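the two lines:
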Amino acid sequence: MTGVILAVARQEVRTARTNRLAMLLIGIFIGMVIVSGFIGWATHHTISSVYREALREGATSAPDPLSAQQPLDLIRNTVIYVILIGALSAILLGVRSTEGDRKAGVVDLIFSRPVTSRQYATGKLLGIQLLTGFILMIAALVSWMVMLLISGRGLSLADTGDLMLFFVLAWLFLFPFSALGFILGAISRRETSALLVPILVWALLVFVIPQLGTAEHPVSLLNPVLARPVSQGPFFALSRRVLQPVSVTDRFRSAGAGLLRIDGADTQSHILDWLSLAGIAAGSCAAAMFIARREIMRRPFLE
Amino acid sequence: MSRAFWTIFRKEFGDVFRSRYFLVLCAALIVVMTLSLVISALDFHTRLSDYQRYVQALKQAGGTTQEAPPQLSPLQQLRGSFEYLEIIGAILAIVIGYGMIAKEKYRGTLRLLFSRPIGLLDVAAGKLAALALVWLSVLALLSLAILVTLYFVGGAVLSVSEIAKLGLSMGDAWVYLMFWSALALGLASFTRQPSTALLISFVIWLSVVLIIPQIGDTMDPDNQVPGGLFQTLQVDKAHQHAVLEHFSFYESTRNALEETSISKHFERASFAFLGVKEMYDRQPLAYIWSGTWKDTVWPLAGAWLGTAFALSQCNKRNLLGRKSK
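prediction for all of em together
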């Protein structure tokens, strides 16, 4: 049984590597992780200079707003790039995984062998998660090196640990997106809906649900620091209570900001965020294994 | 215009409104835009109640406040809705533009179409004209939904000047959405596999709509300190400008980066007309136009380029020469 799963997983990793668009998105993601450090550094440098200038002109007597800033805060934008590019890449990997086999007609061939649909789905999902895990490991390494380049000295052991934990968190966050892509690639009759539906669900999770709980404007949600305090009206309090458990982006943003110790973020333990993300990741993979059954996968594409 | 053009135009226009994707996406867009408006109104009421409670508490303690109550014009409440138009509207535009070519490729109807005596640009022009009318209809419907929601949720009846500003913002939206549809139509004609065009369009969308504006936003020092840098430092407006003059290179670089995004231009122009940007709130149209005409001209140029690209790609040689796999 393990042999079959590993063979499917190995094949999945090999096939994904030839998916040029997925590789392009992954390339953009790694590129943006590098850029993130430099943007953080340039912004940090400018804020400090603005503060010094304001102090020199006698326009302020307030303390330096960055005096308590932590080193990992410099890569704060990575949180957003994981939500934007990472999630879309995961969707694409998931869609192409099942859709590719269905279009190539290899599903019939695979299921003519003694392979159950559960083994097949487990192998495929394992392959995708190994690949995303590997990409995030590279991203973590790149971030560490960017920090070294910017600050001239490496991160402390504690900061390195938090950086690694952040990318583990990102890995968990990407699970449901790749599983969603996997499911849609398996059940859709049309290529357009296989791609479009997960992207719309992603837009709903990234923009609409967080807005319902915070009243923040959609574009402002792309900034790691919220522009204003969260609205406290009864509607928003209720929305937060109902939607937060399923709002993966809110959970990831909150726990990620805590790990990177982003200015203004809640640095309390985010154990509930972790548990929630792990639960959603496990649930989505279980759903993918349950839905991607032999008879569904064998249905032909209409386009 | 030839008869073939009108036939294609009529067929495409009808097809779009019969498409399930279009209807679902269009409904989703209208729902999120009106929902955003409702959220904005609820948020405003929450802030107003907070303010009233604060004033009441101060009064009971024998004090008075210098702080003015929260002010919001009806058009300012449309900020979130227009941001959805910028993000989700662009996805809808891509899907419609791509769908116009993809359906022909998947059904294999292109050879039949080009076996008839039609002009070089009839197919492309017919499809683009249909797109233009589709967007005009969708935006008219959206405007109506906005006016009704503003009336029932915010209790606001817009003045003639406000309706004109909303109309101009919608005009900007029309240009912006035409850019995305034309680009997707051109790409779907250009690529062998239509789904590749859809993916390339989404990669461009991701970069132009989300990544570039996001970088610009996070490079803004004022956005990187909770509550705003200058507010935290308690620096007044006059000093803000004086201080920022020393960082003109950084600010110009940030601005130049933002200006490469057509979405940012659309956002700036529509936010100016809606009064979201404070300096344009309740100002005459001539004043707003003089400050923001570039933000309308750039998307116009983008839409023209997108249309030219679509016209150059959506022809017999390309569509029949590059067979879909």
